[in-house]
Amino acid sequence: MARESGAYEGASRRQPVREPAARTYARALPVVPVRARGLTIEGADGRRYLDCVSGGGTLALGHNHPVVLEAIRAVLDSGAPLHVMDLTTPVEDAFVTELLRTLPPELAGHARVRFCPTGTDPVASAVSLVRAATGRSRVITVADEPFHDGLFPRDGEAGQEPPAGLLLEPVRSEAGVFPAADALVRHLRARTAEQAVPLVVDETGTGVGRTGAYWAFEHSGVTPDVLILAKAIGGSLPLAAVVHHEDLGEPGEPGDSDGAGAAGRPASPPAGGPGASGTGAFRGNQLALAAGAATLAHVREHRLAEYAAALGGRMLTRLRALAAEFACLGDVRGRGLMAGIELTAPDGTPGTPGTAARLAAAVRRECLRRGLIVDVTGPGANVVRLLPPLIVTEEQMSAVLDRLADAVRAVDRHRPDGTAAIRAGHGPR
Predict the structure, then answer these.
(1) Packed helices 304-325 and 394-413: angle between N→C axes, nearest 10 degrees
(2) Angle at 373 (CA atoms; ends 367, 374), nearest 5 degrees
(3) Which one, 126, 133, 262, 323, has the greatest CB density within 10 A?
(4) Count of C-beta atoms within a 10 Å radius of residue 291
(5) Which residues in 141-178 are b (16+ Cβ under 10 Å) and which e?
(6) What 3 state SS string does 341-356 have?
(7) CA-CA distance, 426 to 253, in Å (whole number)?
(8) Cα torsion at 100, 104, 105, 107 (round to 10°)?
(9) Which of 298, 340, 288, 291 minimizes the C-alpha distance to 319?
(10) Which DSSP helix (H) or strand (E) runs through 25?
């Protein structure tokens, strides 16, 4: 352990001079992980932490889940190639089969799956796809707060054509955990359908059971035309894909193996622009496909989406009770095992620049001191976010919420403004 502790200190000293200051997690969470299992991370300093960041939602089954490790070992031991871009392999076929099994029949029966490099490439590929399919260029992103319906030209409105597509996140997690209302999603689906506008749903952070449904769009009962998938679909390894209805075509470079359609299917010309053909050497990685297929199947077979809905509901109830107690806590938002707690300025308003962000950072620090890793998100950096893995137990969730509550109390006691710590008579929201 002394050797690992020395490595921790050395790594912590070297990182600031080797890597850019833009790295956020390393600055805010000075932990050097050496072992991990499920919800727990062990640092090189010997401390153990409950991880409620889950790789930003990547770890649906937590760290080093046995079914994921078994799937990876099987590929390693088989002698199969570890990297063949997105050529058809038994591993890729198994992943696509399992992925289609999780989708609603009206999409799965007419779906095309296109693997992409991770990062922003799946979004760029989806945008290129709908532009090519419609011959239009304007893509609307539903990013207003709150959502509104001023998105399409009204009947008879001159000088404006329908957009090429509408891009929607079911929960705007990075923006501060804002779930889209189911009624709004249904309304937008109706509007896009009546104007032949493809509905693109970005399930990067919400898919694979996270929100209490296997795919977050299922809460509203709609079926999108295009799905953007990443994070949890790789079972902890980098993997991204665009799933779309076959009627939209298949963007790519004809005759170019680096822009071919998924699984060797013929491709049609792209609309142009970055990521238009979805090219990239590291798409369809075999280890990620194996880990992803194992994860998708485990979540489906063990009904972990339903478990996330039930346990997540209890988590949100406790968080709202906590917010009712402390003046520094504002709105509590979330769905399933995805929650955000907004920190507010001392007078209860979130708009005072800097103050709420400092409180959120203080809560994160106090959580870390108590062995709990949480995230801070939102444009004002004032939302503490919880993303526990879907395998978190009732007992572990209780420990998470106890440590968070203790951290909030510690921050509230030491506020420099001197305002009263408890909101008298303030009920849950």
Answers:
(1) 20
(2) 85
(3) 126
(4) 28
(5) bbeeeebeeebbeeeeeeeeebbbbbbbbbbbbbebbb
(6) EEECCCCCCCCCCCHH
(7) 60
(8) -80
(9) 340
(10) helix 25-28
pTM: 0.84
Model confidence at 35, pLDDT cuts 50, 70, 90, reads: very high
Nearest residue to 387 via CA among 123, 39, 47, 27: 39
The CA dihedral of 217, 223, 225, 230, to the nearest 10 degrees, is: 30
Structural contact between residues 308 and 210, judged by C-beta atoms closer than 8 angstroms: yes
d(CA 195, CA 353): 41
**Phi and psi angles of residue 154, each rounded to the nearest 5 degrees, phi first:** -75, 160
Measured between alpha carbons, how far is 358 from 164 in angstroms, rounded to an integer? 41
* Mean local confidence (pLDDT), 384-402: 98
Phi and psi, residue 257, nearest 5°: -65, -20
Closest CA to 187 of 173, 199, 203, 179: 199
pLDDT at 367: 97
Q: Please give the C-alpha separations between residue 201 and each of 87, 125, 206, in angstroms, as whole numbers.
A: 26, 13, 10
Tokens of 252: 């790519």
